[in-house]
Design goal:
single chain, 5-stranded parallel sheet, 3-stranded antiparallel sheet, about 30% helix, binds 6-phosphogluconic acid
């Protein structure tokens, strides 16, 4: 909220999928939060998408739309990754063009971040967005969005993902990690292992929101 208020101009927020952000999205559907958002000037993007139809329950932007966006956001301010293209790579190219026209340039300028806020999650293998460990997408630097033909974890559907340069081009990145099944991977992330989640960070602030169940033993009580 502070980040939105701090930018009196057009605001760009990049959402994430998976289960972790659901609670936050439910909160954004409540009157208390809805009334604080200047919906006309906030634009909503998504960091990665499962290559399934928009109405499929697995579709990340579909989940965000059903949970809060469709209640309040003007349709023109919702920017889903298309999944009606021939393949994920073509979807990536289309979304890249959409991001570049929104940004007004096809090169990212360090002094002018693409997003105000990027939300992220962490998968059990240390992936974030659909940047899986040891998959080529994690090392792509010249593209903003790419197709990922195969996923490393469930759901095993092809993905489309923003690359690190695009995700990292933000004023604030917020990781949400919850549940005891995340404790093992969080231990590895906090140990500084070379995992995709450790390579994603904002040009400004990077914040980790971790619930108690996910917190490794040696960090409890700190
Ligand atoms: C996706 C997500 C993915 C997610 C992590 C964590 O499409 O699955 O965008 O990157 O953030 O996998 O998922 P959970 O929140 O479900 O654990």
């Amino acid at each position: 909220m502070a980040r939105i208020a701090g930018n009196g101009d057009r605001v760009a927020i990049c959402l994430t999928g998976g289960s972790s952000p659901k609670q936050l999205y439910q909160l954004l559907a409540t009157e208390a939060y809805r009334s604080q958002i200047p919906w006309q000037r906030v634009h909503w993007f998504i960091g990665d998408e499962r290559f399934v139809p928009a109405g499929d329950p697995l579709n990340n932007m579909g989940m965000a739309r059903r949970t809060f966006l469709d209640l309040s956001a003007p349709a023109a301010n919702i920017h889903p990754i298309p999944t009606d293209t021939a393949d994920p790579e073509q979807a990536g190219r289309r979304y890249e063009s959409e991001l570049q026209s929104f940004y007004g340039a096809d090169q990212l300028d360090y002094a002018r971040p693409l997003f105000d806020v990027v939300l992220m999650g962490v998968g059990p293998d240390g992936h974030t967005a659909s940047l899986f460990p040891d998959y080529p997408a994690i090392d792509v630097t010249e593209r903003w969005v790419v197709g990922v033909p195969q996923a490393h974890v469930e759901p095993f559907v092809p993905r489309v993902t923003l690359t690190l340069p695009a995700l990292n081009s933000c004023r604030e990145m917020l990781f949400e990690v919850s549940g005891a099944d995340k404790r093992a991977i969080l231990t590895r992330v906090l140990a500084g292992e070379n995992l995709p989640a450790n390579r994603a960070h904002s040009m400004g602030e990077t914040i980790w929101l971790v619930d108690k169940a996910a917190l490794p033993e040696n960090f409890r009580g700190q």
